[in-house]
Amino acid sequence: MNPRVNAVQPKPDYILAVKFNNGEQKLFDVKPYLTKGIFTALADRSIFNQVKVFNGSVLWPGELDLCPDTLYEDSVAINKA
Description:
By secondary structure, the chain is mainly β. It is built from two helices and seven strands; from the N terminus they run βββαβββαβ. The protein has helices spanning 45-48, 68-73; strands at residues 5-11, 15-20, 25-29, 52-54, 57-60, 64-66, 76-77. β4 (52-54) and β5 form a beta hairpin. The longest helix has 6 residues, at 68-73.
């Protein structure tokens, strides 16, 4: 099982900064989802910015969520120099 989300912060250009319970910090690009089904609602910045952690994943109003495995596997590590 992949790590679960501990913290999330919305960033410009529909990016989520996600911290996982294994200490990793990654960036997840939500843009590919903005034209798909119920996720089109996230194109509204005021809704996108309301993201919060819920049960080890992320949740938006209207019970929009993403699988924590998708968040982990399809994100890129934040390079810390």
